[in-house]
Amino acid sequence: MRCACVACALVACGPTAPSSGDARGIDGAITIDSTPVSLTDAAPCNQLHATIRDFHKTHPDFEHFTSDAVVKGLVAPSLGGDHTPSYAPAGATVCTSGPTQFADWYHDVAGANVAIPITLSLIETSPGTYVFDSGAFFPIDGQGFGDEGFDHNFSFTTEIHTLFTYQGGESFTFRGDDDLWMFVNGQLAIDLGGTHQPATTTVNVDDLGLTKG
């Protein structure tokens, strides 16, 4: 199974927290899959808007690998020009088929995937600390290509964009299995690629060279 995620700046909310965006710019708009996205559409601090892309089990990157290890270096250290990860290896790896197949992961490709928008609701566990925690994250069971004979719909990627205002002292902790990459200001901050058992890592935003405000 593979439930791959790319997360951009899921650290804290600030005066503006758009439904989509990129922390590299907080005015104007960016373009995702040829669609202009405003960076001023405010969203509540306790919500993250995501795009789930469901894949058929025949896709070579899904339901075809048995490796169980975190694999670093699957994506380039900077986001591509379209604000999605760029595949780094020259060819296949123990958990990926190659650059052509990986290009499907975060782009709408007719016949290869089905894009399904969802909203993740976070719980404020203490002032300024927001948490999403699910021991069974299967948000599209019965949707897209369906569960395809499995107990759940396992074959999907998750893409999230949001903005936050850096105030100092923020951190972001991720725990989960299978691929996770988080970029802040377009730069790779968490690299947990590969199909693997749940792994945990924390990023201290103070270490990323950002300017307060």
Structural features, described:
- The chain is mostly beta strands and 213 residues long.
- The chain is built from 1 helix and 12 strands, in the order E-E-E-E-H-E-E-E-E-E-E-E-E.
- It has a 6-stranded mixed beta sheet with strand order 5-4-8-1-10-11, with no helix packed on it. Strands 2-3 form a two-stranded antiparallel sheet. Strands 6-7 form a two-stranded antiparallel sheet.
- A hairpin with a 2-residue loop joins strand 2 and strand 3.
- The protein is globular.
- About 10% of the residues have low confidence.
Can you give keywords for this protein?
6-stranded mixed beta sheet; 1 helix; single chain; mainly beta; 213 residues; 2% helix
Structure at a glance:
The chain has 213 residues and is an all-beta fold. The protein has one helix at residues 99-102; strands spanning 3-8, 29-32, 35-38, 47-55, 113-121, 123-126, 129-131, 156-161, 171-176, 180-184, 187-192, 199-204.
Low-confidence stretches: 7-28
Please state the structural category: mainly beta
Secondary-structure element sequence? EEEEHEEEEEEEE
Mean pLDDT: 82
Between the first and last Cα atoms, what is the distance in angstroms?
40 Å
Shape: globular
Strand residues, percent: 25-35%
User: What is the strand tally?
Assistant: 12
Count helical runs. 1
Radius of gyration: 17 Å
Strand line-up across the major sheet: 5-4-8-1-10-11
Largest sheet: 6 strands, mixed
Helix content class: under 10%
